[in-house]
Specification:
Elements lengths: L1 H9 L7 H29 L5 H21 L18 H5 L1 H8 L5 H19 L4 H28 L4 H25 L2 H16 L3 H35 L1
Helix pairs in contact: 3-8, 3-9, 6-10, 7-10, 9-10
């Protein structure tokens, strides 16, 4: 037995150092952990770019509503368009879309209104069927749908690997910090669902269209078209990127 041990010891290199060998094994075991941490850090630094469109939309929402609040001399918090009017849309258009908004306020042609009417009131009925219209409206139209569109659009841009994606990442971090600061204070003092509805009323007053028309253009025309377009475009960009790599 002692002869076997002596042979094993004699086979070691002359400069064999047990401590150095142990350090090398530890270094090798740390490499996967370091790689994983670097990947997670890189993902964390890049993740705001996927939220850039929705962040800019929220910033536009806050700036637009607060500008309108100042122009109308409305209270510092709460609803903005509370005064009923037959010449401009107000919260009465939200409460009585058919009897007040469509009856008194012009906008799209009658044929265009009739074309979007089934989808418009179908979407409204779908949100009402949830049992909590306000929560469903806020969650689906105010967060999930625009978030998916934002991620899809920026994913297409990321796959192109252009040089301006890095400046966009910096811009995304700036937009994220600004949006968190502005929106945190704004939504703390205002009801989130009411604030989003006030933004539609703000767009209505600025565009000269009715509350019904702005809702229809945004949620029945523009967003569905972008939704139908962004995912096929994403697949095309993926295939073209994979071909370039090959």
């Amino acid at each position: 037995m002692t002869e076997v041990l002596d042979d094993a010891v004699s086979m070691r290199p002359r400069n064999y150092n047990p401590t150095r060998s142990l350090r090398a094994r530890k270094r090798i075991s740390i490499l996967p952990i370091a790689w994983l941490l670097s990947v997670l850090c890189s993902m964390f630094l890049r993740f705001p770019i996927y939220f850039l469109p929705i962040l800019l939309a929220y910033l536009l929402l806050v700036v637009g509503n607060e500008t309108e609040r100042h122009l109308l001399d409305a209270p510092q918090s709460g609803k903005i368009h509370v005064v009923r009017s037959e010449t401009a849309c107000s919260w009465q258009c939200h409460h009585a879309t058919i009897n007040h908004c469509l009856a008194y306020h012009n906008g799209l042609s009658e044929s265009a209104r009739e074309a979007v009417e089934p989808a418009y009131f179908g979407l409204t009925a779908l949100l009402l069927s949830s049992g909590n219209y306000r929560a469903a409206n806020l969650l689906f139209l105010g967060l999930l749908w625009p978030l998916l569109l934002s991620i899809g659009m920026m994913r297409c841009l990321r796959l192109t690997k252009n040089t301006w994606t890095r400046p966009l990442t910096v811009l995304s971090w700036m937009a994220l910090v600004t949006a968190l600061v502005l929106c945190a204070g704004t939504f703390r003092e205002n009801n989130s669902n009411e604030y989003l509805t006030d933004f539609i009323l703000t767009l209505s007053r600025w565009s000269g269209l009715s509350y019904y028309d702005v809702n229809a253009i945004v949620f029945i025309v523009i967003w569905p078209l972008i939704t139908l377009a962004v995912w096929p475009i994403l697949e095309i960009v993926k295939r073209s990127a994979s071909k370039l790599e090959c």
